[in-house]
């Protein structure tokens, strides 16, 4: 929970979009999170550039995620 709260202001997406993020959507090499249209309010795909800080938090989250 703490890491998700730290990530939220860095990616600036709705809480539900962050909560339903899937690891397949995150490209760590290109520092990009591709949110598919079906998860977006306007039904348009959304690309979220990821800062170094965001990548670090996501890597920590992935370590603790039993599905990751």
Largest sheet: 3 strands, antiparallel
Residue stretches low in confidence (pLDDT < 50, at least 5 long) are none
Rg (C-alpha, Å) = 11 Å
Strand segment tally = 3
Features:
15% strand, three-stranded antiparallel β-sheet, 68 residues, 3 helices, alpha+beta
Can you describe this structure?
By secondary structure, the chain is an alpha+beta fold. It is built from 3 helices and 3 strands; from the N terminus they run ααβββα. It has helices at residues 2-11, 15-19, 52-64; strands spanning 26-27, 32-35, 46-49. A 3-stranded antiparallel β-sheet has the order 1-2-3, with no helix packed on it. It is globular, with a radius of gyration of 11 Å.
Short description, anyone?
The chain has 68 residues and is α+β, with helices and mostly antiparallel strands. The chain has helices at 2-11, 15-19, 52-64, and strands at residues 26-27, 32-35, 46-49.
């Amino acid at each position: 929970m703490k890491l998700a709260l730290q990530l939220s202001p860095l990616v600036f997406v709705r809480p539900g979009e962050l909560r339903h993020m899937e690891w397949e959507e995150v490209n760590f090499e290109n520092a990009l999170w591709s949110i598919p249209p079906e998860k977006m309010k306007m039904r348009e795909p959304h690309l979220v550039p990821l800062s170094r800080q965001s990548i670090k938090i996501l890597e920590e989250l992935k370590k603790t995620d039993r599905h990751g």
